[in-house]
Amino acid sequence: MSEQSVTTEQATSTDHETGGISIGQIGLYATLAGLVGFYLIPIESGLVTSIKTSAGLDNTMPFLPPTTGSWITFEKWQVAFDFLAPGMVNSMLFTIPSTILCAILGSMAAYGLTLVDWRGQIAVLSLFIAGIFVPYQAVIVPLFQFWSQYMQLGTRLSFLWGLPLLEPHYATILELIITHTAYGIPIVTLLFRSQYKTMSEEMIEAARLDGASIWRVYQRIVLPLSIPMFAVVFIFQFTQIWNEFLFSLTIIGSTNDPAASATLILSGLGQSLEGTDYPLRMAGAFITALPTLLVYVLFADKFAEGVQT
């Protein structure tokens, strides 16, 4: 019997001994199981904490469910929702318009910087790239001074507040829409540009030879092909803006302001002189995260398609 045959028989017998699973596969499955536990245990701990009473929180480990029925309560979820509901409405009012504006303006800017040739294009693109690296902390003081001292939208738009459905705190929400849109356009432009660079130049050139204008090419060719990337941008920007805290704190300033966002209200939820109500904070955190989870579920297919482009 040759040496190769002996080796093959030994490998076969080893596979039979381990039930057809190699040592490498066992290690892979163990690693995957460890990663699943690593990411799910904090979520599980937060969920079980959110349904505990104060006695249940004091007498059980954070990741263990309550051991008796008297330690279980869903009242914290109701209280958290009542506190967060106005803030979630405000967050929707500036997150959705900001996301849509970022996507539309970023797509148009990427089209002009990628598929249209004009003098100074590289210099303008460099400014967009530089805008990505401007840290939030570097702009909060100028941002606060710009809106509070120079623009003062609440005063300038005071003639609107007598109209139905319009409230004075909408001026603050408008400030947040403009701020998030301006800060999000650079990264969105780069995302769209990465897709537009892969588009067929022959197709674009053929449309131009047929007499299509720059706007017509964008409207009839580029825009329909950009739908998957719009889904990527929508998920990315919605998550970024919804979870953002620093701009809300700078422009709004207080959790008692009628324009307070969900994240701003969440930062003070459960705080009192007696200490921190962790079940209430956990319930509030999960309620605040629901819109981003819903966006991922609704746009998952388009997101996967856009990532592949």
Automatic annotation (TrEMBL):
Keywords recorded for this protein, A-Z: Membrane, Transmembrane, Transmembrane helix, Transport
Main location class: membrane
Record-linked Pfam families: BPD_transp_1
Cell location: Cell membrane; Membrane
CDD domains linked to this entry: TM_PBP2 (cd06261)
Domain ABC transmembrane type-1, first and last residues per copy: 88-299
Entry's transmembrane regions: 21-41, 92-113, 125-148, 168-192, 221-239, 278-299
UniProt-listed PROSITE patterns: ABC_TM1
Membrane topology qualifier: Multi-pass membrane protein
Family to which this protein belongs: Belongs to the binding-protein-dependent transport system permease family.
Entry protein name: Carbohydrate ABC transporter permease
Organism per entry: Haloterrigena gelatinilytica
